[in-house]
Every structure is written in C-alpha cells, then in structure tokens.
C-alpha cells in the first residue's frame, strides 16, 4: 500500500504540453493550398477532436470505480501456479475450458471479486497515508468505510462494505471496531491491525495489514507477512488444510523480536484461522489453522479463501475481552418466535440492510436505530444473530496480522487482493 495516486491499472492523468490548448478546445491549423495568385496559400481551419479526459481518483477517495473501468473488466490479481502435481492444470485442455466457462458465468463471479479487490487496493492506499498517531479509531474507521462505500458504489445488498472495519490494537488481535462514544486515540507506539472488507453481489474481499510507527516490532510484522505468503504458496486444489497450518507455523516461529534488550519468540496464534468464503458468508465453513494439525479436509476447485495469519509476542492464544461491536445474522438462523416487538423490528432492519453480511453497532446508529441493545442481545440469545467480541492475547504482548483473498481457479490460483504494498 504505497503512496502513488493510481493503482491496479489506473493510469495517472496525462497533462498536455504547455504549448497546446486545454483539452476540448479547437486548434487552428494552417495548410498550404494548391496555389493561387502570387503563390499565396489558402488558410483552412481544421477542428481537432477533443481529447477524452482520463479519470483520476480524488483525495479522499470518492470517485466510483465504474469511472475507471467502464467496460466492467477489472484488474486481475497476482497469478501463482499450483505446486507439484497440480502444475498440469495450466496445460490441461479440460481445465482451460472450465476457466473459459467460469469467465462467462452470467454472475460474472471473477469480475465481481476483482472489482471488490480494486476498491480495497485504492481505499487502503489512501488509508495508509491518512492513518497517523493522534487520529481516533472512529475517524480511521469512518475514513475507510466512507471510501469503500463511494468506490464500490454502494447499492443495498448488491455492493457495499463487506464487514466492519477492524482496528485492533496491540495485544488485541481481531474483532475490535469503535462503538459510539469510543474516544481511543492511536499512539506512536501502537501496533494497529487494519482489517476491512468489500463485497460485490456477496463476493467478499477480506484483506488486512498491520501498521507500526516505530521500528521495535518490525520483525513481528515481517514474520506474519512471511507466514501469510507461505500459506498462499502452499495452498491449492486437493491440498490438506492441516498441511498448510504446519507450513504457516514453521515460517512464523522462525522469527524473533528484540524488545528492551529482551529476545521474544514470535508465536502463531493457535486459535485463530483463515477460512473459506461463500457468497454473503464471510466464514464459509472451512478453517485454515495457523499451527500444525491433523485436519484432512482438502481445498477444492472454485473455492476462494482468506489466508490470514496472526503472530504474537505473548502466549499465542486469544480470549474474548471487551465490549462487543461485531455481529452477523446466522446464515442458518432458526425460525423461532420473538417475544420482543423491538427484536422483530431490529431483525427486519438487519435483513433489509445486511442480510448475512457482518455489521457493527455504528452501522445500526447510521441507519437511525436507537436503544437497540436489548433487542440485539435477544437476537443473539435466540441464535439468530452471532456476536463476535474482541479477541485478545495477554496484556503487554503485541499481535500482528496480514491477510489476502485467493481464488482457486481451474488452472491457476489468483491472489485477487494483492497490491504493490503487500
């Protein structure tokens, strides 16, 4: 996530040379005639076609992505070949046929995922410049979410924010976003995880990075980024989930961090994981643990995954801690009678605006809901809505996260959220 204006194939605007008129003006061009009295040539005026102005992203980003890609074709992510015995897929006529059929899918699945990924790249590029010590968590979250809504051209359940913006600090690894009234300010020594999502027709891009503002924990970030890249390299069709976890752990735990003269091992957080993603369902049912395990479940062609890894200088295990902000309606929610009228009304709001896409309390505030906590807790107690409290390692430790979304295509794997930054 670097500081250039244009990303993912969006070129910067070309400025005309100073000797030319502004774009769109007619230029008078002298042409010599075939001859005439005294050999004087005739002057003719020739209109020059106006140049088509190229779109340029605003600062902060608010220009919808369709202005940059009017043909609906969005940048392909990073392509990686499958490993070992899967390399035949790149030459298989059958698999190449399957690839063409997938591209012709009437739902344009690939293009939906790539559109969401390009929104993520452009928003996070701007966010990396915006996020600085002294900003509040609410300012940062709203900056990211406002940019996401504008660029994806939010449209009900067709396109929008993929889940609440995670801004977990220090020993908190995941699932923290500010609620109303939160006044936490980012500090110089903080380690900040920035985890946000974008969806188009329910196809969710889930990608995250970590920021620090001094060098103490650079090795921690390096360990986690390398572990994520390892997980991406090792994953593939027919690969066992347990084998990927072992590779991630080996990479992660080969790093150490020196803090105040003391050397600390980097530990993979054993009870967090990557996951498959289904349409409108951020956790699709398959989990990619970050440590060695015996899960024989295999990845399959056509699936897509969030490979996310978390490293810690603490015990390497998280527990629920703090006020809950993240919620999601269960995709298999039971049909139970609700005794609270307020709970029925709130469920209607959730169904209309989020469906099974995760949301947070700020999003309910934004819709004009008030005094909803009793109703929300009732929906949780009935198993209709799932709550996701913050997940934290021991106090005093530091955690980091990197994450990408990867599509397992018939011939190759596509790291759709990859950018110049990570």
Automatic annotation (TrEMBL):
Composition-biased stretches, type Acidic residues, lie in 24-33
Does Nucleotide-binding appear among the keywords?
no
Per the entry, the cofactor note is: Binds 2 divalent metal cations per subunit. Has a high-affinity and a low affinity metal-binding site. The true nature of the physiological cofactor is under debate. The enzyme is active with cobalt, zinc, manganese or divalent iron ions. Most likely, methionine aminopeptidases function as mononuclear Fe(2+)-metalloproteases under physiological conditions, and the catalytically relevant metal-binding site has been assigned to the histidine-containing high-affinity site.
Which residue spans traverse the membrane? Answer: none
Which residues lie within the region annotated Disordered? 1-85
- What is the superkingdom listed in this entry's lineage? Eukaryota
Metal-binding as a keyword of this entry, yes or no, is: yes
The record lists the catalysed reaction(s) as:
Release of N-terminal amino acids, preferentially methionine, from peptides and arylamides
Name the cofactor(s).
Mn(2+); Co(2+); Zn(2+); Fe(2+)
- Any idea which positions bind substrate? 175, 283
GO molecular function terms attached to this record:
initiator methionyl aminopeptidase activity; metal ion binding; metalloaminopeptidase activity
Per the UniProt record, which EC number(s) apply here?
3.4.11.18
Entry's localization field: Cytoplasm
The protein's matches in InterPro entries, at most eight in alphabetical order, are given as: Creatinase/aminopeptidase-like, Met_Aminopeptidase_Type2, Pept_M24, Pept_M24_MAP, Pept_M24A_MAP2, WH-like_DNA-bd_sf, WH_DNA-bd_sf
A Gene Ontology biological process noted in the UniProt record is: proteolysis
The similarity annotation says: Belongs to the peptidase M24A family. Methionine aminopeptidase eukaryotic type 2 subfamily.
Report the protein name in the record.
Methionine aminopeptidase 2
Species assigned in the record: Neolentinus lepideus HHB14362 ss-1
